[in-house]
Amino acid sequence: MSKSSLQQLVDAGQSPWLDNIDRRLLKDGGLAKLIADGDITGVTSNPTIFNNAIGGSRIYDETIQPMALAGNDPESIFYQLAIEDIRQAADLFRPIYDQTNGADGYVSLEVSPKLARSTKKTVEEAKRLWKLLNRPNVMIKIPATLQGLPAITAVIAEGINVNVTLIFSIERYQAVAEAYIRGLEKRVKAKKPIDHIASCASFFVSRIDTKVDGQLRKIVEAGGSNSKLASELMGKAAVSTCKTVFGIFEETFASERFQKLAAKGGRIQRTLWASTSMKNPAYRDVLYVESLIGANTINTMPPGTVKAFKDHGQVGKGANEGKAEAAKVLADLPKAGIDMMEVSAQLEDEGVKSFIASYKELLKTIDKRSKEFRKSMGNLAVPVENAIKALKEKDFVARMENKDASLWTMDPAGQKEIGIRLGWLAAPAKGAAIIESIKPLLAECKEEGMSRILLLGMGGSSLGVETMSLILGTGEAGMELKILDMTNPDQVLAAAHWASLKKTLFFVGSKSGSTSESNAFMDYFWEKAQKTLGKKAGRHFIAITDPETSLSKVAEERGFRKVLLSDPEVGGRYSALTMFGLAPSVLMGQDTDKLLETALSMSELCSSSTPIERNPGIMLGAFIAAGVLKGKDKVTLITDPELAAFGPWVEQLIAESSGKNGKGIVPVDAEPKLDFYSTDRVFVYLRLNGKNERRAAKARRAGHPLLVLPWNSGYDLGGAFVQWEVATTAACCLMGVNPFDQPDVQESKVRTKQLTDAYLKDGKLNMGSPIWENEVAAIYGDHLNGIDSAKSLSDVLSVFLKQVQIGDYVGVNAYVPRNDRTMNEFTKFRSAITKKTVTPTTLGYGPRFQHSTGQLHKGGANNGLFIEITAEPSADAEIPGWKMPFSVLEAAQALGDFDTLQSRKRRVIRIHFKKPFGRGMLPEIK
Ligand SMILES: O=P(O)(O)OC[C@H]1O[C@](O)(CO)[C@@H](O)[C@@H]1O
């Protein structure tokens, strides 16, 4: 393939650089493509470029939002976002830098233009930026003002790469080269190495023609004696000046003085042609490229010029020819009445001023957006800022990375547990190996005719997967997945109906290996599989569990296809990005690399290598904690419909992590549309396409604190897992709660066991005595004042809901099939409850919620009222070897949890419907 004109430039010794940076170009792969295509070998930026990028899209909000909420000023926000872009770009150019041994592949960032007239401040700023950027292939841009010249020497002497900007005259160019050489000489004198220092001198081309042509035009128009000469000189000043500069450049760096430095590894300060887009349409659009080609030079071009040159640029002799003619033009210019010293002084002044204007404008944009973000906090702006400061003071992130359990508890047992519960921090980094190990399994299973997966597991062992399957769907070559996490017989039978045995791979997921629901499901499907598949049954089963659990032993005994080991240092609700989530994701044929990519970049942002003010996890955690500490303990999730499935995962994470010791965060998910909200809430809006923007905006307008978390695609899920995990642990730190245990879940399990043991002995469950009943339903619970006069279920609920106080929430815990129809019924029910009581509501299907929000119900603050709903099953299924059907297990679980809530003095009633649950059975709320 023949070389493109841009590649020919490289052969001629000139580096084509891009005079533009924009996060959109970094994110959408545009810059990477330009590099891969061999079009550009470096990048330059300036305040105007950043102003256009920041003003031109909302992509920088991801940096502005956390920084603003942490109380940063616009300038520090700007440098943070600039540093992020420059670093990312530098990393893309790093291979070029390495291949050329540091000759090329640079990205430049300019010191604040406001410092252009101060040597000292410029030097300080250059040092600060260099340190922050922490990349060998970046250059710090310093203006070639008179004050900038000594700064260049000082900064070069510090060993920092410098791109000298805003050069407009031959004399100033000479001074710049001198400043550079002096800097190197200073280092040599100080016996410091100079071989790694790179520099370039940026000469601004087109601006010279624009100004000189303007003046020439006036002379021509005046029609005096100079007008003919003036007319001939039009369009020649810039190129002629540059050709002369090029000659001086060649001489300077061929000089004996420089050769001494070159012998020590000193590099030529390359000449960089800047401002090379054509401003005058009457001239050839690539004139400032074609005319200035030369060895050891750079041409930095805006995107349009890169495109034009690639399309029709010609690589000839460029700067190497026509030097005599150039000299003549320069000699003629004063004769025609042009004072080039004056021109360059004006250009320098205008150049500095225009960069300052752009800089001010970009700061104004950042300021405006910062204020919007802070306004969205309602009356939490200061508490959120303080919460971030508190986490910073505690050095939360670094201490968490160092497994410092005292962040959450002083209790020795709790601390010991935390010591083995922080493995999730490293999960994204370990993900690739897990993914690779699972890939062959997909091919094998498909070859054996399996196209479906039924995942049997509770809480953390299934909620992450549920989220992935519903948000990301099944990939083209993947297997379809469904989850069974309910003991309701109808639900079990529906799963069995779907999971035709020959086609299905059963995935038993349980970290502890001892979760009764998962084991019951396994036993049920194992028996079925044995009957139908005989000896091949084991091929259809996989277990994911910790090493040495009872499940791993059973799996071995039964000859399961595989036992996938989970990371013992990661608790269930933090395990989405470990084997528990990644193995099913691979088998569903999802783009796991993409998922990991977003997880890894979020991990980096949430690590101690990022300033805490920029940490998205800390921002979210501080928001949640600030709310809780101000009595706004209900985190209401609003999601665009495509992200709705994220809610149940968040519910478990925050409720089970925080809901203990009488404290807790109440997640409010999938709430019906409401006109009015109580003031004990904060809102988080997961925004993908803005479909629910109005709903979120309504909450904000009513003064409720709202944090908007934008997603670019479903694959931001990987990052969201990490962000919410960090947020939860940070919030728990501020609340003084250990986020890694679930001390109150056990009691319901124990009570359930007592009930099933009694059933095995007596053949029936002890359901207790109702406090009210009619032909449709029976009500269980403590006596309620006023219940005796209740004539209907509606009356009973009215009596029950009379107990609601400000700050409460109502939890509906339903042991009925989980499907669209029942969901619909509960949505209406929740809506009616809130309309009556103004209280937020939650919905959990039993027993799945017991492994999620159940911890909060029992261990959190006593501000929940619970309506438990049970119903007669419409069918049943025996659990092999358990001597009981699923209906009994489900009922015992409902009763066990109910008893536990009662023992914790929670306000709770149980409505038991005497026939299977269906439409219109839930009472009206009066
Ligand atoms: O993976 P396992 O051990 O079956 O546990 C399932 C779920 O049950 C809980 O332990 C609560 O009972 C959750 O924390 C956990 O995610």
From TrEMBL:
Keywords: Cytoplasm, Gluconeogenesis, Glycolysis, Isomerase, Pentose shunt, Schiff base, Transferase. It catalyses: D-sedoheptulose 7-phosphate + D-glyceraldehyde 3-phosphate = D-erythrose 4-phosphate + beta-D-fructose 6-phosphate; alpha-D-glucose 6-phosphate = beta-D-fructose 6-phosphate. It holds the Pfam family PGI. GO terms for cellular component: cytoplasm. PROSITE patterns: P_GLUCOSE_ISOMERASE_3, TRANSALDOLASE_1, TRANSALDOLASE_2. The active site is at K141. Pathway: Carbohydrate degradation; glycolysis; D-glyceraldehyde 3-phosphate and glycerone phosphate from D-glucose: step 2/4; Carbohydrate degradation; pentose phosphate pathway; D-glyceraldehyde 3-phosphate and beta-D-fructose 6-phosphate from D-ribose 5-phosphate and D-xylulose 5-phosphate (non-oxidative stage): step 2/3. Its main location: cytoplasm. It comes from the Bacteria. Coiled coil: none annotated. One of its GO terms (biological process) is gluconeogenesis. Its EC number is 2.2.1.2. Belongs to the GPI family. Belongs to the transaldolase family. Type 2 subfamily. HAMAP family: Transaldolase_2. This is Transaldolase. It comes from Leptolinea tardivitalis. The lineage of its organism: Bacteria, Bacillati, Chloroflexota, Anaerolineae, Anaerolineales.
